[in-house]
Amino acid sequence: MKNLEILKLFPEPVLKYKFENFNEFNNELSNYIYNLYENDKEKKIIKSNEGGWHSPDFQISQKDTIQNKFALALQKYILNACQNLGWKIENKQIRITSMWSIINKKGNFNVAHTHPNSFLSSAYYVKAPENCGKFQIENPNQAKRYWYPEIKSKNELNKDFVSLSIEEGDLLLFPGYLSHKVSVNQSDEDRIVISFNVDIR
Q1: Is residue 51 part of a domain?
Q2: The domain containing residue 64 runs over which residues?
Q3: Would you say residue 143 has pLDDT above 90?
Q4: Domain total of the chain
Q5: Can you tell me the mean pLDDT for 165-177?
Q6: What percent of the chain shows pLDDT beyond 70?
Q7: Which residues lie below 8 Å from residue 54, measured CB to CB, with a gap of 6+?
Q8: Which residues on adjacent β-strands are paired with residue 121?
Q9: What pLDDT does 11 receive?
């Protein structure tokens, strides 16, 4: 129709970076994570993971460790995300409050969840073989889940969720309120992701 202007208001951000020197970092991070896995005798942490292993929190304050070096290297990406989102960060303390890893083997996945009390959340890909499961963001408009007409053709104005293809070294940063999940790992190889939460005070 002529003279139609569709105003796409209130976009929800997911910032996607390629982490510098990710191959070098990922080799050491993978060793660190598998070591945590081998030493976790109980393996009882269950949050959004269905069948996968959820690590204990990383000890990122231990200097000169790979997890500490990784946390330090993340700072410029976190700062850039805050700047792009237009957040006031002058004279503020920006800190990673927690960091952990999930290993998803074949058939494992993560259900939809948010990260409460976090301004930023994340997903960083240490190991991401083909068909290991896409990262999915759900539409945060709750009302549309309960009262919406039948969809004839899918488009960006009526999607329930968006699936993102990911590769090793990809870093996703997004607001903690955004509901997200991971589809089933259909690969015979492990999928390893690191997540962390960011607070601003």
Answers
A1: yes
A2: 15-200
A3: no
A4: 1
A5: 98
A6: 100
A7: 45, 46, 47, 100, 101, 102
A8: 174
A9: 92
Residue 178 maps to which CATH number?
2.60.120.620
In a domain, 137, yes or no: yes
Q: Is residue 187 part of a domain?
A: yes
DSSP symbols for the chain: -TT------S----EEEE-TTHHHHHHHHHHHHHHHHHH-SS----SSEESSEEPPPP-TTSTTSHHHHHHHHHHHHHHHHHHHTT---TT--EEEEEEEEEEE-TT-EEEEE--TT-SEEEEEEEE--TTS--EEEE---THHHHS-PPPSS--TTT-SEEEE---TTEEEEEETTS-EEE----SSS-EEEEEEEEEE-
Domain presence at residue 131: yes
Query: Per-residue pLDDT tens for 39-49?
Result: 999 999 999 99
Closest by CA position to 193, among listed 26, 39, 45: 26
Q: CA end-to-end span of the chain, whole Å?
A: 49
Distance, in Å, from the CA atom of 171 to the CA atom of 124, rounded to the nearest integer, reads 4
